[in-house]
Input
Amino acid sequence: MTRILCCRDFSQPVERSRLVVLQRRSTEESWGLKISTSEDGLFIQELQDSPSLAKWHQEHPAPRCQIQPALAILEVNGKEDSEEIFDQFRTATLVEMTLSSVMTLSQQQNFAIAAKRDRKEKELAAVGELLHAVDGATAGQCSICLDEMQQDSKVVQLSCGHVFHKACVKKWLLTKRMTCPLCKQTPVAEKARGCSHFS
Output
């Protein structure tokens, strides 16, 4: 179990910083932090499920003590170099971090880019769950691009039964609407349908 030792705020001339000390049982236990880099240093990109963060937020509910995305990591265990900080996260069972709520322009830009990429990956994964592969030879014509579907074509079927080229319908679902281009039904993931013939 991860133990949280302390949280202390202190002010610096230009930025608001906080000291956070986290402890874990072993190096196999996750800190629950997805960390990204920029030319100016490291920052927290995303929080992940972990006992250490759950306990931290429970024991330190004040907003000034919260660990959250978009905090710059200034120092970990006295180390300021990015590689040395990563090494501390990999090998230490106790980390003393200085975090700042003020990120550089480079960190802000990288945070926005990574957040957009993560959002797009989640959207792609969600769309992938809506598609069921079928044989292209018997599918006919794709109603989006109007090309005939060949046997070697990647063809998918939505829960409503309509079939399309995989690339065409993925683009449609991600950029147009989350409905079937033909019948306008909202596709349902195979898991949610509970149909045993889809695997």
In short: Residues 129-190 form a domain with the Herpes Virus-1 fold (CATH 3.30.40.10).
